[in-house]
Amino acid sequence: MTEVATPTPTPVDVKAVVKDFLAETSMMERDTEIERVLKAFQFNPFDLMNMPTTATQEEIKRQYRHLSLLCHPDKCRAEMRDKAQKAFTLLAKAKADLTEDDKRPDVDLIVNAARESVTTRKQQANARAKKERAKERARLIAENTSLLAQGEVARDIPPEEPVGAEKVDVSLEPDFEEQVKQEIREKIIEREWRKRQMMKAAQAEEEKIAADNAEKQAKVQEEKERKEEWESGRENRVNSWRDFKKAKGSKLKYKGPQIRAEDDVNTYVRRPVQKKNAF
């Protein structure tokens, strides 16, 4: 019986497999980050940079270096290069808005207003919640008084909250930063809407002024052309009148006044003039 030779297994190049896996993972990470940047709210640089509004200048620069390498068009797959170029451009603008002295104040103005709005809203919500808890505690106290009077066991009552408990640092709450970003989004949208409305109003006013000026110029031109036409026809009119007078002047004879009289039947009927006999 002939023995079948068992093929020798090909040694696996572990380093090559790991390298390919890391390369594939890196490409997936790049694609994911590119899509995230393109889907972010493009008017908010913190959204584009995926950073909290409290980030320092050093943290912003470090994050930009990391994201710009991930989204660099030369380091992405060919089919993702157009998207990578857009994401890379957006990141560069976001970094400029957050680090350049002439642009950062505009960002801070909106961010500070958003943080104040969220802080006030959360503090008001905490104050309302505290009032509700105080009402519930008062109800439990009254209920316990009734239970004790009836000889029953009183229920547990939560301790009274200290004064000012509603004014804790709300910025430490988990959802604070997310609410700030949402508030920034709403404020930017409102600002852009107002800006566009003002631009439309200004454009409409410019168009109205331009239309009025065009109408005035048209009237001036029309009057100018009318005068030029009148002046150009002056000589013809004078010559025509002279020719008419010359041609008709000799044929015009004075017939004297026509006598009209009035009778019982007709008014102002012409009557033949009776010539009186000289004899």
Strand content: under 5%
Shape: elongated
Our Rg estimate from Cα atoms comes to 49 Å
Low-pLDDT windows of residues: none
| Total of DSSP H or I helical runs spanning 4+ residues | 7
Which structural class best describes the helix and strand composition?
mainly alpha
Q: What percentage of residues falls in helices of 4 or more residues?
A: 55-70%
User: Using DSSP, what is the number of strands?
Assistant: 2
First and last CA, distance:
185 Å
Major β-sheet annotation:
2 strands, antiparallel
Order of helices and strands: HHHHHHHEE
Physical arrangement of strands within the biggest beta sheet: 1-2
Mean pLDDT: 81
What does this protein look like?
- With 279 residues, the chain is mainly α.
- Among the domains are: 17-100, Helix Hairpins (Orthogonal Bundle); 104-161 and 170-201.
- The chain is built from seven helices and two strands.
- The chain has a two-stranded antiparallel sheet.
- Helix 5 crosses helix 6.
- The relative contact order is 0.06.
- The model has no long low-confidence stretch (mean pLDDT 81).
